[in-house]
């Protein structure tokens, strides 16, 4: 349902410019908010653009407090123009450092408009006097909620200035210092330029510090990473140029250009600096490392290996970022039509490649495009370009329409009036449908399948996909669907939790957790399901469309039923899962063998789910049951439990606590008429994963017979192969509770 996300408190991060007109702010952080709502990184990334040009208001009430406008006042027709004090620009989802901790959220620039002089003065005065938490920000937005989880932010009404921000909602640093004696961001970037000029003069040859592009900055950051690998002496050199401020300034500039790879480089350098003490930028000497090893301390060397691996990954990310930039630039300059660009983008996106390889591919597509133009299949240029429909495509569209297949792009081709007409369009020399056709060209060494058999199979497959997607698949409520690229063993790793955070006294060092989280690993492989079906010569001669149009629907029902049984068998079959124990097992604390389906027994099961503990600890997860799954034989009892206003069997005085919480799933595949189950929500815990080979969720039809150039039929029929390939496994038993009654 659509709910208000009003009054989410956010943090002012930075102030900019002496007059207090522009401020860099954190609008909202990912993770749980102070009012209990949980914002995932994905939700915030999708909502970034909603904050662009969002209004900023200040409302002051009789008690002196600044807060949001009350709901009843928002209906006033005249509005509150005088309370509008500014707007937000350049919102982006990014990482930042707050109180020494790396966080992620939506960051933007708050511009305070002319006329709001009192507010500018108040903010500037508070900053100069160290009162960085005097004012804060709070979003007024609307979106979708599922329990405490924010599913989406769909509308942003405003982001208002308030006097009671959430904990931590304070100013953190100046982007451009308001102290006139300090330098601005541009000067800090010049420091980056000058430092790179000292360590690699050739890299900055011919460049000016006030004309640097994002690509220049990215190359400078790569050089810094390379320089930092020089060890102790290199890091001492970085210290001489105040590298912490230098890196932070560059980090801000780069992130504004979305060069995430470069940002990660800088974060790695900061991490190294913090690791080895008070920003001294000194690695432990080789002698001390050897001595530490002799004393049996291996932690430092292991940490060094981790850092080295992280740097390797960062360098890989940098290369990917550079490849993305090259791909975008070259495609824009290619002047190819969009379909040709998309083909190249699909081949290169997410890969590291050389500019030469990309240019070869672009040249090849340009040649193919020119050939299409010369052949007459492409008409017009630029925005007026159109592609004529080949005769084979016209026939395919007419056959698709005859069988009721989904038409993605309708070119106005009329449907065939019958199957026999379709056949004779391909083979006018065979009006009696004998299957004996002559070849218009010769081939050597291979058998070429009949074009009609392929076209018919294509139409059947398209109708099959349409029918399959119309079928209600209730198992999708409890399954995470993923693409799988091969038949190799798929491994799913689920981590447990850490112990509680330790208390840290003043000036004390932070300690490692006592032990790593326990991991649980589930595995599965992709399997193949399939059968053969056929279309007879007799059906074509008789124009029997009933058989042909029913065929895709029957196949779709068979495939959907087979997959549904596969999924539900994880529950009703109660087979061994990743820990070699049955899904419902006493060691899992998720089974009863004595409780029949009743209101009180369902409550008992719901409490058992809430008491489930995190892997490797005794900390309770507090899982909420979301579905009551039952066989058809228990439908009457289940409906009473799920829909009654009052507690079933009571005295009409006690409300039904289950009705607003559980959803019912009647399962026709369950063979035991007494067993029932509770299942949690996918939003709260991983349940079952189903992987589809190459991400193909629908079944497919392929031609089975390899027809010759002169034979359409094999034994008076055309045979097709139906194939559906998938696999799966239970990921976490904690999301399931079963009453298995003997």
Provide a descriptive summary of the structure in words.
- There is one protein chain.
- With 742 residues, the chain is α+β, with helices and mostly antiparallel strands.
- The protein folds into 4 domains: 2-176, no CATH class; 185-324, no CATH class; 391-470, no CATH class; 471-497 and 517-536 and 549-742, no CATH class.
- The chain has 18 helices and 27 strands.
- Strands 1, 2, 3, 6, 9, 10, 11, 12 and 13 form a 9-stranded mixed beta sheet that branches. Strands 16, 19, 24, 25 and 26 form a 5-stranded mixed beta sheet that branches.
- β21 (625-631), α18 (635-643) and β22 form a beta-alpha-beta unit.
- α7 (260-275) packs antiparallel against α9 (299-334), α12 packs antiparallel against α13 (419-426) and α14 crosses α16.
- The longest helix has 36 residues, at 299-334.
- Mean pLDDT is 75; it is low at 1-18, 75-79, 165-190, 275-286, 378-387 and 439-449.
């Amino acid at each position: 349902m659509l709910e208000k996300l009003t009054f989410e408190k956010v943090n002012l991060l930075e102030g900019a410019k002496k007059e207090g007109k522009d401020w860099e702010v954190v609008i909202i952080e990912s993770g749980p908010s102070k009012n209990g709502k949980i914002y995932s990184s994905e939700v915030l990334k999708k909502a970034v653009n909603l904050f662009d040009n969002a209004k900023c208001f200040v409302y002051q009430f009789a008690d002196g407090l600044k807060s949001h406008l009350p709901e009843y006042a928002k209906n006033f027709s005249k509005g509150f123009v005088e309370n509008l004090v500014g707007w937000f620009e350049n919102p982006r989802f990014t990482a930042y450092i707050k109180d020494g901790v790396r966080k992620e959220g939506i960051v933007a620039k708050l511009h305070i408009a002319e006329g709001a002089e009192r507010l500018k003065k108040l903010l500037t005065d508070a900053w100069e006097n160290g009162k960085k938490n005097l004012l804060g920000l709070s979003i007024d937005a609307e979106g979708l909620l599922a329990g405490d989880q924010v599913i989406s932010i769909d509308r942003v009404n405003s982001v208002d200035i308030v006097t009671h921000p959430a904990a931590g909602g304070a100013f953190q640093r100046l982007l451009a210092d308001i102290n006139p004696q300090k330098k601005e961001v541009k000067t800090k970037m010049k420091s980056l330029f000058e430092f790179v000029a000292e360590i690699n003069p050739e890299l900055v040859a011919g460049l000016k510090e006030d004309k640097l592009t994002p690509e220049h900055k990215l190359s400078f950051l790569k050089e810094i990473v390379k320089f930092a690998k020089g060890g102790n002496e290199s890091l001492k050199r970085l210290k001489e140029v105040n590298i912490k401020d230098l890196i932070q300034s560059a980090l801000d500039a780069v992130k504004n250009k979305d060069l995430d790879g470069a940002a990660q480089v800088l974060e790695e350098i900061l991490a190294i600096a913090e690791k080895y003490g008070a920003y001294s930028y000194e690695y432990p000497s080789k002698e001390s490392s050897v001595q530490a090893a002799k004393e049996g301390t291996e932690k430092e060397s292991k940490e060094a290996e981790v850092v080295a691996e992280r740097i390797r990954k960062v360098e890989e990310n940098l290369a990917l970022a550079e490849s993305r930039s090259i791909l975008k630039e070259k495609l824009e300059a290619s002047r190819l039509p969009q379909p040709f660009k998309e083909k190249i983008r699909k081949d290169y996106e997410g890969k590291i490649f050389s500019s030469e390889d990309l240019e070869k591919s672009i040249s090849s597509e340009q040649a193919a495009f020119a050939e299409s133009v010369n052949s007459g299949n492409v008409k017009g240029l630029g925005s007026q370009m159109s592609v004529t429909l080949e005769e084979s495509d016209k026939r395919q569209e007419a056959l698709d329409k005859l069988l009721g297949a989904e038409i993605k792009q309708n070119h106005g081709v009329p449907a065939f009036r019958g199957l026999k007409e379709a056949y004779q369009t391909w083979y006018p020399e065979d009006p009696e449908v004998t299957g004996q056709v002559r070849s218009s060209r010769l081939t050597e060494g291979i058998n070429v399948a009949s074009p009609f058999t392929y076209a018919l199979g294509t139409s059947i497959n398209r109708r099959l996909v349409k029918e399959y997607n119309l079928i209600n698949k209730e198992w999708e409520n409890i399954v995470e669907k993923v693409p799988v690229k091969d038949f190799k063993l798929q491994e799913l790793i689920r981590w447990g939790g850490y112990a509680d955070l330790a208390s840290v006294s003043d000036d004390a060092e932070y300690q490692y957790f006592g032990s790593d989280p326990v991991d649980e690993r589930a595995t599965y492989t992709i399997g193949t399901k399939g059968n053969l079906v056929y279309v007879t010569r007799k059906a074509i001669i008789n124009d029997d469309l009933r058989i042909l149009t029913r065929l895709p629907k029957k196949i779709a029902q068979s495939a959907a039923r087979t997959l549904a049984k596969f999924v539900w068998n994880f529950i009703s079959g109660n087979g061994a899962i990743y820990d070699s124990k049955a899904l419902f097992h006493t060691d899992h604390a998720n089974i009863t063998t004595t409780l029949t389906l009743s209101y009180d027994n369902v409550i008992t099961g719901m409490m058992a789910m809430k008491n489930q503990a995190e892997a490797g600890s005794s900390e309770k997860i507090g899982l909420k049951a979301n579905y009551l799954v039952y066989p058809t034989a228990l439908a009457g009892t289940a409906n009473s439990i799920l829909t009654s206003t009052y507690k079933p069997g009571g005295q009409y005085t006690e409300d039904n606590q289950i009705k607003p919480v559980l959803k019912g799933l009647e399962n026709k595949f369950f063979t035991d008429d007494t067993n029932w189950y509770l299942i949690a929500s996918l939003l709260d815990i991983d349940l079952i994963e189903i992987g589809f080979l190459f991400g193909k969720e629908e079944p497919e039809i392929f031609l089975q017979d390899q027809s010759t150039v002169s034979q359409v039929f094999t034994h008076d029929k055309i045979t097709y192969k139906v194939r559906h390939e998938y696999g799966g496994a239970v990921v976490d038993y904690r999301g399931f509770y079963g009453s298995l009654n003997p």
